[in-house]
Amino acid sequence: MKFSSALLSESVDQFAKLPGIGKKTALRTILYLLQKNPQLAKDLSAILVKAVEEINECQKCHNLSDHQICGICTDKGRDQSVLCLVENIRDVMAIEDTGQFRGVYHILGGVISPIDGIGPDKLNIESLLQRVETEEIREIIMAVSPTIEGETTMYFITQQLRNKNVKVSIIARGVSFGGELEYADELTLGRSISGRQPYLLAETV
Asked: Where do the domains of the chain lie, and which CATH numbers do they carry?
């Protein structure tokens, strides 16, 4: 694409770096903001800068938070003894949308994937084990996407928990193998959480 404005060209290039956004979509969006709604562009810019500067990572579960500890972790109405283990923040949002879970979460930050150079040390596994030691957690629900990498991750973590006094369960297979949790519909995901089953190694815990 050729542009009459260097700033327009740079704006499109930067916007097109976002996931799922191509150059044409970026151009349409930038033109809309410039020509139809410049105030929205200013507001969007200001809130993004504020978000980058002020949103923190929860020191307990690794979720995003306006404070050091997120609202889910500090909610006294939730069952603090039941912990749902997920890959990422989007999975937390997907499970919360089901309304079927009233425990707390721990975000791994991904799954073990040697081919991508992601080992256990790159994930939030050590902080999970620390929570098991310091908090009164009676059950950990493995709500990890049922991919090869996800299964490897669940197996590794369950091995680390073998000598801990905690129940390990896995969501029911309403989510198909190879699927990603965040794309499951709310009804299927809700039933998978409610119908969770003991993990294969649970009897050795």
From this structure: 6-54 (1.10.8.420), 57-204 (3.40.1360.10)
